[in-house]
Amino acid sequence: MSRKIVVGFDGSEASRRALDFAVGRAKAQGDSIIIAHVLEWSPYSFLTPEELAERHKRRNEELERAEKAILQPVVKRVEDAGVPVTTVIKYGHIAETICQIATDEDAALIFIGRMGHSGLATRIFGSVAGTLAQVAPVPVTIVP
Prior knowledge:
Blueprint: E1 4-8, H1 13-29, E2 32-39, H2 49-80, E3 85-91, H3 94-104, E4 109-113, H4 120-125, H5 128-135, E5 140-143
Parallel strand pairs: 1-2, 1-4, 2-3, 4-5
Helix pairs in contact: 3-5
């Protein structure tokens, strides 16, 4: 039975390891992959209508750049491995948005790379991988 695997991908070495691991699992089990790239975005509700229009334009440009620079190069690699793949690019809080993508896509698993950061910032703010492990609607694999 084919399942969908969501892979959080930002172009980092950690996300590449997670994608490679997911490709191996998907290939072995006949699953498909959804590569999810999330751009953090703050609504800035206090901006003027003109400023909001300019921001919207920049937002669209960022989405196009992310598609071309981050996702397109890895999609070919996944396809060449014989694994069905799609992509999703959204704005939002990374962990929450990946959870929403998994729910919307009826995914069975989420794979995410661990960045390896430690220290005060991670303890105070948490990490995307740690947050996903706690709140995801499906099992999460954190790839070191």
